[in-house]
Amino acid sequence: MRSKGRLESIITTLLFAFIHGITFGNHLSVIIDPGFVLGWIRANSGSILPAIVLHNGINLLATVVPWLL
Questions:
Q1: What pLDDT, in 10s, does the model give residues 48-63?
Q2: pLDDT tens for residues 8-23?
Q3: Which residues contact 29 (CB under 8 A, 6 or more apart)?
Q4: What's the pTM value of the predicted model, to 2 decimals?
Q5: How many CB atoms within 10 Å of residue 34?
Q6: In 1-69, which ranges are continuous DSSP H helix?
Q7: Backbone phi, then psi, for 2, in 5-degree steps?
Q8: Cβ(16)–Cβ(35) under 8 Å?
């Protein structure tokens, strides 16, 4: 990843964490790690679609798993 891409990834991850942090309270580490992973997938795949699919999968699991327990 180019150094400009790293900076963009860090900024995007922090924005992702801030927006999701409003929903999840103080558990930003749970949000920042997936944010970096999604940013890495976007940067290395050349498309935002795989990151969107993974994000939706994470949201699905976060919704369904507690309901099953």
A1: 999 999 989 988 988 8
A2: 777 877 787 777 766 5
A3: none
A4: 0.66
A5: 17
A6: 3-24, 28-45, 49-68
A7: -65, 160
A8: yes
Q: What is the mean pLDDT of residues 27-53?
A: 83
Which amino acid belongs to residue 39?
Answer: G
Place of tokens 């994470």: 58
**Phi-psi domain of 25 (left: phi exceeds 0; alpha: psi -120 through 50; beta: other):** left
How many Å apart are CA 35 and CA 16, to the nearest integer? 6
- Is 51 or 4 the better-scoring residue by pLDDT? 51
Q: Which residue has the tokens 């964490």?
A: 17
Handedness of CA 28, 33, 37, 40 (dihedral sign): positive
DSSP 16: H
